[in-house]
Amino acid sequence: MPTHRVLVAVRVLEGESVPQSLFELLSPVPVVLLGFHVVPEQTPPAQASMQFRERAQAKLDELVEGAQTAGCSVETTLVFTREERQSVQRVAEETGSTAFLLPNPVGDVESMLVSLRGPVDPARLADLVAAVAVPGDVDVTLFYPAVDDDDAAVGSERLETARRTLDDAGADPERVKKEVPIVDNPLKAVGETAAEHDIVAMGERAPSLEAFFLGEDAERVAAQSLGPVLVLRRPTKE
Amino acid sequence: MEAGAELERTVGLSGGLAIGIGTMIGAGIFVFPGIAAGYAGPAAAGSFAIGAVVALLVALPTSELATAMPRSGGGFYFISRGLGSLAGSVVGVSLWLGLIFASAFYLVGFGHYATAVLAEFGLALDVNPVTPLALVFGVLLTALSVTGTENTAKLQNLVVALLLVILTLFLGYGLLDAFGLFGRSTAPEEFAPFGYAPMFTTAALVFTSYLGFAQVATVAGEIKEPGRNLPLAMVGSVVVVGVFYVATIFVATSAFQSARLATFGETAMVEVARDFVGPAGAVVILVAGLLATVSSANASILSSSRAIYALSRDALVPRRMSDVNLRYGTPHVALVMAGVPVLGLVALGRVEVLAEVASFLHLLMYGLVCVALLALRRSRPEWYDPDFEVPGYPVVPVLGALASFGLIAFMQLLSQVIGLAIMVAAALWHLYYARDVELRGVL
């Protein structure tokens, strides 16, 4: 599997920051730090850049220092934009990033919840998890909230694939748990269970009407868990 | 591109067309037909056609320059790089004020439509509500812009699409009616009952209806694939609105004698609609008129703020004028600097003078853009590499310059005097504040 590269997008002029513990978690993989600022339609991005570029760059430099102290290898970009999503996707494409991190506040990262619901490839997600959790001695809970018994059977298989990948990557079997509960609302279950862990890892879904109105899955989980979310990007067509 | 930070391009072809068409369609259809017919009779259709030709003659050179220099700022940018900073100052300040005059014009148009709505509901007021209504909405628009109200762009696109649908239906019906398909008799009238000279002076008056296409160039820095989308959006929007305008005059003068049409004033189209389809038609056109004028006013206010930004970026006016606040993310200084003069002009309420001065100042820029193209093509600096080249060089830009300056000659004296005074004031400001600024060829 190719090396993972994680994109961390930060609103540098709105006081958003990245907890040091997340940089420590990410230190085994290359990191792209994207500092961005969203401007309203009344303002050409160039105008905001003219006024705030220095300040934004200074903030970004602070974050880079923190990342490097934690042992990360970091590349950075600063973007002024009207459309956050478009910019993040574009930079992810250009840098070859395989995952995003939603950098919400967290203390030490000791326990990770890995959600294997949705169209994500269990082996790819497990590979990403292994890349950061194994060197960091993080406890991993493989999670598949099922809607019924048939679904639970599917889930168990996916969990087994993931567990094998983690094994091959050298994970301590004592640190890997599996859970396949039956629930009413799987996405909500992920968010609720995430409260018991320090970070969630999950996959990205293709754009849909539901996502348009209610927000991306990862954002909804982050809103509930209030913690960081590591999102594996959908594979780009070769 | 600002060194060190990336600037996202988020405007597509449809966005560009919406900007062009959306800015233009407010005036041409909803404010001018009655007035224009009053001056020139059915030949007013020719006036609009003349305007379209002039606009196209200018749109083509503007497209070439915009693809060579796809930075926000439009005409001002091309002129300052092609002809130097004094020309840049004069054009930039004139353009800024031209947009302010245009905004005031649209707001007064809105005031007339809002008044017509009240009249439709049978509300008779002691005082003429046109100006107060226009003022209230002027304040509202400025406040909405300063507080960074989102989605006005998406709303504007929706409004433009809706307007085009309404107008297509209305004009389609009107054309069929004019050709006698519905068996009604039409108002017979010779094409140019007042002679042909008024066709030209009216062309100068109604040229405000074509002031939107260059707006597309002002967002050149934010358009995706500018080499392809800029020319398409500019030329496309002129062609589309030109066809609509000519059809509108044709339909309107088929419904009523031009003298009668003129008595309806700014809201003549409402009466035309009423004549075709009854009160329902009148209401639809009233709503369309409100939407069109308000969205044009909003677009012009935002463009004037961009003009200030372009000037201050080149140090021709103080930097502080393009300050952006972090609370709303908007250029509040420039927006207020637009809003206050707009309100002042609205209070004076003379629609025709507002329109002509706005046209004057824009035509000045258009003519100079053509001259700038000729200058840049003659000197061909190495950085000058447009993706789109003007067909018919040098005829097109030369004609464009002559037509633009020529149209100014047909305006009423008061408008010419005001326009000239503004140019002189801008030149004096330049000599006072920005004499040392070198801009020719500076990218």
Explain the overall architecture:
- The complex is a heterodimer of chains A (238) and B (443).
- Chain A is α/β, with parallel strands linked by helices and 238 residues long.
- Chain A has two domains: 6-102, 3-Layer(aba) Sandwich (Rossmann fold), CATH 3.40.50.620; 111-232, HUPs (Rossmann fold).
- In chain A, 42% of the residues lie in helices and 21% in strands.
- Chain A has helices at 20-26, 45-69, 84-95, 122-133, 149-168, 186-194, 209-214, 217-225; strands spanning 6-11, 31-38, 74-81, 99-102, 111-115, 139-143, 176-179, 199-203, 229-232.
- Chain A has a nine-stranded mixed sheet with strand order 3-2-1-4-9-8-5-6-7, sandwiched between helices.
- In chain A, helix 2 (45-69) links the parallel strand 2 (31-38) and strand 3 (74-81).
- The longest helix of chain A is centred in the N-terminal third of the chain and has 25 residues, at 45-69.
- Chain A is globular, with a radius of gyration of 18 Å.
- The mean pLDDT of chain A is 89.
- With 443 residues, chain B is an all-alpha fold.
- Chain B has helices at residues 13-30, 32-40, 44-68, 74-83, 85-120, 130-146, 152-178, 197-206, 215-218, 226-255, 258-263, 268-277, 279-313, 332-348, 351-379, 395-409, 413-433, and one strand spanning 6-7.
- In chain B, helix 3 packs antiparallel against helix 10 (226-255) and helix 5 (85-120) crosses helix 17.
- Chain B is globular, with a radius of gyration of 21 Å.
- Chain B starts with 5 loop residues before the first strand and ends in a 10-residue tail after the last helix.
- The interface between A and B is medium-sized, with 29 and 34 residues.
Kindly report the CATH topology of the largest domain in chain A. Answer: Rossmann fold
DSSP summary, beta strand count of chain B: 1
**Oligomeric state of the chains?**
heterodimer
CATH C-level category of the largest domain in chain A:
Alpha Beta
Distance between the ends of chain B: 10 Å
Order of helices and strands of chain A: EHEHEHEEHEHEHEHHE
